[in-house]
């Protein structure tokens, strides 16, 4: 069995993480070798936050001393490093990113309401407390249960859009080949089937969607191997980031290499990560930081969905 090194894809994840599934499907589309580093479902996550500087959401991708937070920047980096097969087949040259904002926010929150409203009595109290700390609001499964009839209507309407997209007989959302749009749409259904499969009963009445779901599932997850958290941290400490210093002349707020900034998600899990700008663009910002267990690392974030502010 191969050993992970500074060039290996290490995905900090857990198996029932819906957003990890999005990345795993992309790894399957590209047929990549990768290492799964399983992280706890709830806090504390000391190894993960040492790598990221405080960001606690899953998944996080590590390649050597470069740490990628959020599926958007993870998939952008995978496409950059491994452009074929592309995540943008057919006519999709970039709007798949916009579609992902729908699946990651509106569709996901609708699915969560149906999933945990239906499975609420079985949800662990520690999990509820953790998600309340993550989101900053009550994780009220009783309220979700009461809202299930209304949210089921919303879920059916949104899944119906996928059914309509497939109505011309195409195999995948953007044509004959799978891509980002398929990974983004699929993971919400996968999450529902893991936690509250009854919530997906409506799929039986959407034959195109049901057949598409099976096709995406059949793609698989590429070649998965396992790595421990300690070994992943050791690789980070022994590695050097490959990110090159680069200034963006069109940076709207003037951020440049050397500036000390704080990067924070704009929705939930707003734990700020502080570091020194290495590079930035309309779609990314990379900051250098240092932590005793991992040494020097560069942490990468997308710009859409994140705020960059003075530290």
Q: What profile does the largest beta sheet have? A: 10 strands, mixed
Low-confidence stretches: none
Helical residue percent band: 40-55%
Q: How many DSSP H or I helices?
A: 9
Strand order of the largest sheet: 5-2-1-3-4-9-8-7-6-10
Our measurement of the CA-to-CA distance between the termini, rounded to an integer number of angstroms, reads: 43 Å
Q: Any idea what the radius of gyration is?
A: 19 Å
Q: Which range does the strand content fall in?
A: 15-25%
Structural class: alpha/beta
- Order of secondary-structure elements: EHEHEEHHHHHHEHEEEEE
Averaged pLDDT: 96
Which outline best applies? globular
Q: How many distinct beta strands?
A: 10
In short:
By secondary structure, this protein is of the alpha/beta class.
Write the layout of secondary structure elements.
Blueprint: E1 10-13, H1 18-30, E2 33-38, H2 46-52, E3 60-63, E4 66-69, H3 71-81, H4 95-119, H5 125-135, H6 141-165, H7 180-195, H8 207-219, E5 223-226, H9 229-238, E6 260-265, E7 273-280, E8 284-291, E9 295-302, E10 306-310
Parallel strand pairs: 1-2, 2-5, 4-9
Antiparallel strand pairs: 1-3, 3-4, 6-7, 6-10, 7-8, 8-9
Helix pairs in contact: 1-3, 1-7, 4-6, 4-7
């Amino acid at each position: 069995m191969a050993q992970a090194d500074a060039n290996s894809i290490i995905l900090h994840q857990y198996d029932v993480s819906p957003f990890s599934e999005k990345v795993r499907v992309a790894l399957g589309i590209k047929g990549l070798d990768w290492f799964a580093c399983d992280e706890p479902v709830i806090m504390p996550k000391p190894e993960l936050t040492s790598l990221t500087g405080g960001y606690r959401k899953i998944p996080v991708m590590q390649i050597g001393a470069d740490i990628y937070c959020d599926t958007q920047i993870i998939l952008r980096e995978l496409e950059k490093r491994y452009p074929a097969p592309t995540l943008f087949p057919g006519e999709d040259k970039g709007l798949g990113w916009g579609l992902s904002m729908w699946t990651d926010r509106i569709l996901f929150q609708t699915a969560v309401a149906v999933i945990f409203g239906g499975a609420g009595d079985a949800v662990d109290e520690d999990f509820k407390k953790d998600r309340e700390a993550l989101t900053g609001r009550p994780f009220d499964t009783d309220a979700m249960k009461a809202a299930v009839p209304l949210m089921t209507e919303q879920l059916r309407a949104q899944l119906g859009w996928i059914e309509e997209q497939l109505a011309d007989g195409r195999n995948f959302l953007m044509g004959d080949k799978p891509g980002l749009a398929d990974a983004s749409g699929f993971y919400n259904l996968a999450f529902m089937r893991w936690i509250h499969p009854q919530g997906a009963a409506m799929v039986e009445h959407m034959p195109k969607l049901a057949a598409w779901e099976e096709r995406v599932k059949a793609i698989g997850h590429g070649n998965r191997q396992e790595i421990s958290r300690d070994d992943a941290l050791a690789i980070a400490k022994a590695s050097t980031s490959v990110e090159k210093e680069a200034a963006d002349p069109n940076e709207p707020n003037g951020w440049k290499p050397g500036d000390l900034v704080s990067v924070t998600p704009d929705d939930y899990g707003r734990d700020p990560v502080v570091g020194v700008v290495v590079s930035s663009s309309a779609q990314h910002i990379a900051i250098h930081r240092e932590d005793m267990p991992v040494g020097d690392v560069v942490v990468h974030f997308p710009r859409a969905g994140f705020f960059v502010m003075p530290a």
